[in-house]
Structure formats: C-alpha cells, structure tokens
Design goal:
- The protein is α+β, with helices and mostly antiparallel strands.
- The chain is 45% helix and 12% strand.
- The protein has 34 helices and 26 strands.
- 38% of the residues are buried.
C-alpha cells in the first residue's frame, strides 16, 4: 500500500506495518497468538474482540488510557489537534489548567498515542485517528455504564427520537431560529453549545440555582432524576436543551454543553506524568545492607524451625485442602510470630518446594526430600532460593483469613490463594525501589500512587476509591520484603539489587560476608540452661535441639534441659556417655553438676520398662513396679492386665501406651519384635519427591523472539495466500482473491515437481479428510508416492499433503 493512501480498515493499517511492528503488537498482546492467526484480516478481527480489547485497556498506563477515553468522546475519525484539545482544554478555564501540565500533555501525547497504535487500539494517520470500535463502545457513555470521562451523550444522540415539536420549543427558548427539519434543529442546538460566545451569553441569563445544577453534573455523572413538576432552575435548563430527557424521570447534560463548561477538557485532572516516588528517610547504605542481612538470616532460621517443627509429620490436610486455623495458630506459637506472619512463612516454604502434603490416606504436611538438600546449603544460598521462590510465586499469603467470592474462608496452603498478578506487582515495586538512590526508604503511599498510574483502576473501583487487589499486593510486598530481608529499614538492599540484575550467584556472594559465622560452642549454666551466643553449626544445633527445649530466642538462644528433653535424646539412640561427651566437647563452661545428675538419673530409668504390641504390652523385671502401675488410677484408660509376673498386656497401641506411662512419670522405652530397644529418630517423615508449585500465569505468556518471528512469517504467508494476485499456470485469468485454485491432476503434479526442483513457493487449495477447504502457501521439498512434502509457510512447519486432496496449484505472482 502506498504511503499516500490512508488505511480504510484496521486490517489495512496492520498490513502496512513492518515485521518488527507486528512482532511488537504480538508481544504487547500475546493473547492474539492463541492460536496463530491465519492472516492479517484474522489478526485484526481478533484484536477487535471484546475480551482482547478489555485486556489491552487494562494494561495501559493512566495517560494512555485518558487519551483513549478522549478519543471515545471525540468525533470519529478525529484529527490529532482535536484529541490534544480534549486533553489540554481551550485555555478558557480561568487558569485551572496549569501551563506546566499543558506542556507536559503536549510532550507526552505522542508517546501515549504511539502506545495505542502499537497495541492496535488506535489506527489511522494523525489527521484521521480512529479508536477501535470495541474500545469506543467500552469507553463511551451510557446510563448503565457512564463514561470514565464523566461526559454524557451528544446532542444528536440524546435527541434521537424526540418529537419535532419539542425540538422547536427548545430552539425557541434558546433564542434560535425555528426550523422544521429535525437534522437542522439538532445542528443548530449543537452549534449553540459549541460556540463559546453564544453559549456564554446564554449562561449569563441563567438563574444562579440553574448554574449550581450544572456544576453538580459537569464532571459527572451527567445524569440526574427529575420529578414530573421540576423546580424552576431545572425547568429553565430543560426548556433550553441544557438538560435533555433520557426517560420520563431522567435527564442528561449533553456532551457539547459539558465540554463548554469544562473549557473543552475531557478529564478534570489529566495526568501526563507518573507520580514521583517520594522518600521518607535517607539511610546509610551499609546500615541498610546489614539490617537486611540480619533479617535474611532470621528468615532462613525461621524456615528451618518450621521444617523442624513439622519434621516428624506436620498438621493434617483439611478435606477441602489447606491448613486449619487451629494448626496455623499452633505453628505461629511454635515460631513465636503472629498468625499472618506464620502463614507467610508456611506459604514461602511451600512455594520453595520445601513443604508439601505426603499424599497418604491420612494426609499430612511434611518436609520434602528437597528440604534436606536445602538444609545442607550455606545460609546465603538458602536465602537466595527463598527470595527467588517469593519473587515468582503467585500464591498470596496476605489473603489467608479472608473470604473468597462465595464467602468461604481462605486457609494457608489452600487451593484458592493463587493471584496471577502477584509476581508482576512484586517486581514492579522492587523496580521502583531500585530506581531510588541507595539507602532511600520510599513512602508507601507514593509507591501505591505510582502503581495506580501505571495500571489505573477501571469501573466502580476507580470511582469509589476501593483498594484494589494490586494495591493490596503492593502493600504486602513491602511488608514481606522487610520480613524476608529483601529490604532493610525500608530501603532496598544491595544484595537484592544484585539478585534482580546480576543473578543469584552474585547476590549470594554479596550476602555471605554480612551473615554471622556459625559457632561451635554453647555456654552451660547451673540452672539447667545453655546459652548459644549466636547461630550454631548445623550438627551442633540439631543435637542440641534434640537434647534441650528452646526457651527464648533473640540475639542469643536459651535452651533448657528437662527430663523430657533428655529422654528424647535417649529415644533417638544416644547413651548417657554420648551426652556427657557431647556437652563437654561443645561447652565453653564446665558442665554443671545438676545437668550431669539429670542425664544420669533419666538414663538410669530409661528402658526400665519395655513396651511392645499385644495390641501392646509392658515388660519389666521388677514385679513391684508393674504392681504400682496397675494400682495407679491413671492407668485405667490404658486397660492393663497382668499376664505374667513381669508382663502387662494393654489394649492401647504402643504409641498411646508410651505416652500414657510417660504422663504418669515413668520412662519406658519402646521394644522391637526381637526384644531390642527401638530407636526413634526425629524427622524421619518425608513426603515423596515433590516439585515446587508452578506459578499461575496472568494470561498467555509473553512469546520469545523465535516464536514471534515464526508467527509473523506464518501470518504474512497466510495473508499472501488470501490477498495477493495468483497467476494460473495456463496463463488464464487471475484467480479472484480468496478463491481456491483449480488445476488438473497432471498440472498439479508438474507444478509442484517444478517448485521442488527450483525451491520456489506455490499457492495451493487443499481439502482435508473432514472436507474443510483451505488455502496454503507451501515450498515443496519432495514429491513421491502420491504425496508432496513441503514447508508450509502458513503453519510454519514441514507437512505432507496427499496429491489427490490438492484442488489446484498456482505460482505466486511477482
């Protein structure tokens, strides 16, 4: 198409684009690729569908959307000057529109219009700009769906169907000459409302109360209700056409009159420039990095504690999926955090593939085999894996405790926490923080304002100020960033900048020097406690966690030794000598005598009683001890009976019997079928191998360069097949566009054989096994056995076609 010929349709405008521009359209609107359009016409049709246009409008920034809204209320087509005037106004608004804003609009409009053109929402030259019809319908005013600009219908639209007599009354009241032609009457009224001088003179005669009514309607909504006998100010406006009837009880301010009152502006507050993200504090970058590193280490240790807490088999899975409120509360108490924070750590571990359900009949949550590999990594690499999982996860822990659309409670690890917008919002928030100087903590409200400009709300949420999901995710992102060590004291850390720009290895290398070195010792105290003055090496921490209970955490961790904790270590296979040796090796202080006595006392009684399955039994060489048990009223629930002088049988299972006797103050040991003491090792329960949950994408994924190139070639080839002139091999008349070529079987065979020899492309008509006819552009490679193997430009792949299903073949004209 020549450059001097303006496009008549969107398809012609797209056909005139180069391949790079088409690829840009498909990249910006990847939904147009599912499946790949057959030709340009099909691409244009798909680009105008309601679902695709809505998705494209929702991804516009505020000023590009305002430009589209202005075009929706402008004449179709509209010249560039008209669009600019709707955004800047006519300068007759007593200085309301600041000069700097007008200059910013002039500078920003070409870029906004370029975005609309690139996304095929606007087409045509600058003197004939056209908004895609579907977008115009979505953004145009109606009583059910007011325009985002707050403008009502035009005079012509509002007076459609009005009686000629009523039009004559309006003309007379407005001081206009009478005419019996309704079209001329509408044109005269429109001319009055668009003439600043005459419109100003009319409004100068209006009562003050009538001007007050106009002030309430001018910026929208433009509709108002009236009674059968309206007040004099409303009657004055209605008689002169400044309020036109929509129904018996509804009137509307016509668009031309509203634009006069607005000084020609379609929007009350045009926003050509994005809001600036402001700072609330300027901090030392080194202090920020240190604070973030400390929080990163705390994040890693918290996830370790969670895995340890669920090591032997975590809480049960609800029937509908997820974690019960009671179990979440217990987990929060174990981690010493609030329940929303506990939900965040649980969801993060799940997103990183460290926790999953075990899939058993009695389904429970438990660590995965991948968690054992994760625990062996250095602390900095463990943090990088958590941060990377958080950045890409679509599961949103902030929703826990809320309700879904059907009023059902949303639970941690439940099935309804995926929000596809979460990764994009997180990356955008961090990108805004990354653009600030190092050490700068942003104002959260300014971050939200910037995000709303980049993705403005549409519909009721935009007009009522409702907090939308993206804003909530942004606030959660700021909070979770601080918890995870992404930020420190509100500012983005250097290691996070490296993670976002240079990759995990660089981030881990920058974080490593900032983390505390693990210690190989503790300080034992006489009150049966041990103090760890810092993080412990993993073998030491694991053993101490089995031998003692954590009493308090912070800069230093305090462990307390109890009979139960010592028995736990003995149950895990340790002996008293092992425990004494362990404490002597790892304590910087002498082992207190009370702790040695505690270990010896529990070890002396440990295993004195033996538990087995009878359902279960108790065996003891001391008949007196068994007699004491039988005489104790607390043993009634165990339903014990003596079957031998040294053996008691119980109906309870061995685990319940163990717990019951321990609650009575005894220290029994479990026994295997061979009579040996059964060693129970902590953390033996693991799920089968599980992969981390896959993020739920927001719409179709953005295609890569290779796919875009193939798609553009396929669309061009299909368009050639449908639109270019095809010359028949017998020099007959050219086939009309869209018609299948018709040739004899012999002519078809000769033509495709010649094309295979020369490597040229041909146009064929093809009928598949279902009888569906199509046109294709192919480059034959081999012809044999009644089949032609060719590269199909339309499908961008090698295909084989039976010759008897080819209706005809034609060479593509030069």
């Amino acid at each position: 198409m020549g450059t001097t010929t303006p496009p008549r349709t969107l398809a012609e405008a797209l056909r005139a684009r180069d391949d790079e521009s088409l690829a840009g359209l498909l990249r910006a609107r990847p939904d147009l690729l599912s499946p790949v359009p057959g030709d340009i016409t099909q691409l244009a049709t798909r680009a105008g569908t309601r679902a695709s246009v809505v998705r494209a409008l929702e991804r516009l920034d505020r000023f590009a959307l305002q430009a589209a809204e202005a075009l929706a209320v402008a004449p179709d087509p509209a010249p560039y000057g008209t669009l600019l005037g709707l955004l800047t106004g006519d300068g007759q608004d007593d200085g309301e529109q600041r000069d700097d804003v007008g200059a910013a609009i002039v500078a920003a409009l070409p870029g906004a219009l370029g975005t609309l053109r690139e996304q095929a929402l606007v087409w045509g030259d600058d003197d004939r700009l056209r908004l895609v019809r579907t977008a115009r319908e979505l953004l145009s005013p109606s009583p059910q769906h007011p325009s985002p600009t707050g403008l009502g219908p035009t005079v012509a639209e509002a007076t459609a169907g009005m009686s000629p007599g009523r039009l004559q009354e309006i003309l007379a009241a407005a001081g206009l000459p009478a005419t019996h032609d309704p079209v001329s009457a509408v044109a005269a009224l429109t001319g009055l409302f668009t003439d600043r001088a005459r419109m100003g003179g009319l409004l100068d005669t209006a009562p003050m109360e009538a001007l007050a009514v106009l002030d309430r309607l001018v910026w929208g909504p433009p509709y108002g209700e009236v009674t059968p006998n309206p007040a004099p100010p409303v009657k004055w406006l209605r008689d002169r056409g400044l309020l036109l009837p929509v129904s018996t009880r509804t009137v509307v301010l016509p668009r031309e009159a509203a634009l006069h009152l607005r000084a020609g502006r379609a929007h009350r507050t045009p926003e050509p420039r994005p809001p600036v993200v402001t700072a609330v504090a300027e901090r030392d970058p080194q202090a920020v990095d240190s604070a973030a590193a400390g929080q990163a280490f705390l994040a890693v240790t918290t996830v370790e504690e969670l895995l340890k807490h669920w090591n032997g088999g975590g809480p049960a899975v609800l029937r509908a999926g997820g974690l019960s409120v009671r179990e979440l509360r217990k987990t929060a108490a174990a981690l010493d955090v609030q329940e929303p924070v506990a939900a965040f750590w649980v969801e993060l571990a799940h997103a990183a593939g460290l926790l999953a359900s075990d899939g058993e009949a009695d389904e429970r949550y438990a660590p995965t085999p991948a968690s054992d590999e994760w625990l062996e990594l250095p602390a900095q690499e463990r943090w990088v894996s958590l941060a990377t999982a958080w950045l890409t996860a679509t599961r949103t822990s902030g929703l826990v405790g809320g309700q879904d659309a059907k009023g059902r409670a949303l639970s941690a690890l439940g099935p309804d926490l995926d929000r596809s917008a979460a990764p994009e919002v997180r990356h955008r928030v961090l990108a805004l923080l990354d653009a600030l100087p190092a050490g700068t903590a942003p104002d959260p409200e300014s971050v939200l304002a910037r995000l709303r400009w980049e993705r403005p709300l549409r519909g009721a949420a935009a007009t009522e100020g409702t907090t939308d999901l993206r804003s909530r995710i942004a606030l959660w992102t700021l909070n979770e960033s601080e918890l995870l060590g992404i930020t420190g004291r509100g500012a983005l850390a250097s290691q996070t900048r490296a993670l976002l720009t240079e990759g995990p290895a660089k981030a881990a290398g920058m974080l490593a020097p900032l983390l505390p070195e693990p210690l190989d010792h503790v300080l034992l105290q006489a009150d049966l406690t041990a103090v760890a003055p810092g993080p412990l090496e993993r073998p030491l921490a694991d053993m101490l966690g089995t031998l003692a209970d954590v009493e308090s955490k912070g800069g230093a961790t305090v462990y307390r030794f109890t009979p139960g904790s010592v028995r736990r270590a003995l149950d895990a296979g340790q002996t008293a000598a092992d425990l004494h040796s362990f404490l002597a090796t790892h304590s910087r202080t002498p082992v207190p005598q009370p702790l040695s006595y505690l270990i010896d006392d529990v070890a002396r009684r440990h295993g004195h009683l033996r538990i087995g399955a009878a359902s279960s039994y108790v065996r003891c060489d001391d008949e007196t001890v068994l007699g004491e048990i039988l005489a104790d009223k607390r043993s009634a629930a165990l339903r014990l009976r003596r079957i031998a002088p040294t053996v008691l049988a119980a109906r309870a299972d061995p685990a319940s019997l163990l717990d019951g006797l321990r609650e009575m103050g005894y220290a029994p040991a479990a026994e295997s079928a061979d009579g040996d003491v059964l060693i129970t090792r902590a953390g033996a329960h693991r799920t089968p191998p599980r992969s981390a949950p896959a993020p739920v994408p927001e719409g179709p994924p953005v295609p890569d360069t290779t796919l875009l190139g193939a798609a553009v070639r396929a669309i061009r080839a299909g368009d050639d097949a449908a639109t270019v002139v095809k010359a028949q091999p017998d020099t007959g008349p050219a086939a009309p566009p869209g018609a299948l070529p018709r040739t004899t079987a012999a002519e078809t065979l000769v033509t495709v054989q010649a094309a295979a020899m020369t490597g040229s492309a041909v146009w064929i008509g093809y009928v598949n096994a279902e009888g569906a006819a199509s046109q294709r552009v192919i480059a034959p490679v081999r012809v044999e056995g009644g089949y032609v193997t060719a590269y199909d430009h339309t499908a961008d792949e090698i295909r084989t076609y039976p010759l008897h299903r080819i209706t005809g073949v034609a060479e593509l004209a030069e």
